[in-house]
Here is the input.
Amino acid sequence: MTPTWIVPDWPAPPGVRAASTLRAGGMSPPPWTSLNLAEHVGDDPARVAGNRELLARALDLPAAPAWLEQVHGRDVLRLDESGLPAERVADAAVTARSGRVLAVLTADCLPVLFCRADGAGVGIAHAGWRGLAAGVLEATIEAMDAPPDQLLAWIGPGIGAAAYEVGDEVRAACLAAAADPASMAAACFTPGRPGRWQFDLAGLARRRLEALGLAAVHGGRWCTHSDPVRFFSHRRDGAERPTGRMATLIWLA
Here is the structure.
């Protein structure tokens, strides 16, 4: 069994390492087939631990990832100390510490990576529509301790607009949170059935990042829902059965 992953396509400085896992190469049976990295989706904890160990060896990680308890909010943890806090309830993390591996779990929400252009720090955020509306990207950028134009971002696999139907309440929340709703959030919603919209989640994340002053935003081209061979998707599979989670990781070598 060999875990598989995407290497982010961004011009990160030397010393920044990152990967976004695919679903193949683990030991979990159906319906979590096979590299499920989440403990909270009903999979056997021993298999999840085995998958995490397989990934750590394949990526030659310098330490165990600092897994977060994600709650679709905007809290960011700064993980610069030698030890990790016992409770890590947050949807983003940043560090300037070499060898500290940041990670988020996703299965339709977006993983968003950040790094400083000078290579002095990295960050990661878990951004679904609730996180975007709450301001998780803004909070992560603020915690990076660098001007936005000195940051790079990479948007990982998430559900694409053609598959992501949402209601009026989601659109209203995103428009209310956007700095300029008329040209930013509204452009990411296409009318569908009455009271329903097709939502370009990655498009809104990109617009928010660019509006915040990031000059270099990469990625955002994979749809988890439309590719069941490579990606888990809660929207596609989770209503009928449990589904696994991919991990996106970043660290300073």
User: Anything to note?
Assistant: The mean pLDDT is 95. The chain has six helices and 13 strands. Residues 112 and 155 are 5 Å apart (CA to CA).
